[in-house]
């Protein structure tokens, strides 16, 4: 496996934890961008560019220890994702059966679970480029088109789904070549819960065991 093929799932893990999904992502190139009639601090596309710049600068540093890289991974999720919404989505219908405190605990475990599995793969970064394209609005969300450009293969198309929270754009989903990463994660977690008699605490316990939290 080449280094460029390794870095894609790493980026997907950071960028791809999802929230509410109501239909297929529309490619940003299919329509002209629509400007939301609200005052925002930064455009959705600029937020994605900032995330990409920060991730590449901080997570690809070869001198970092593994624990430090994972901490930086979690910090990026704190800054750029709306984690409560994300957590509710990946729990599916089961989030209604647990308390706000349990949701908060799950969010922390989810971030650390993803960091443990994927953060260190950013050490494999080897000259790939992330290119942010146009953005468009559909209903209450904004979609940002982008590509991950590899030196030894075709570019990977990535569409980010974003929503305004207190005039700040936060990521709630990302689709890579049409595949919602959040739906993929939800399916994995739902399977674990169902195998344990619909007990969400079984999933929480499993994540604690994996992350050491």
TrEMBL record:
Signal peptide location: 1-27
Gene3D superfamilies: Tgt2/MlaC (3.10.450.710)
Keywords: Signal
InterPro entries for the chain: MlaC/ttg2D (IPR008869), Tgt2/MlaC_sf (IPR042245)
Keyword Transferase: no
Name of a matching Pfam family: MlaC
Annotated protein name in UniProt: ABC transporter substrate-binding protein
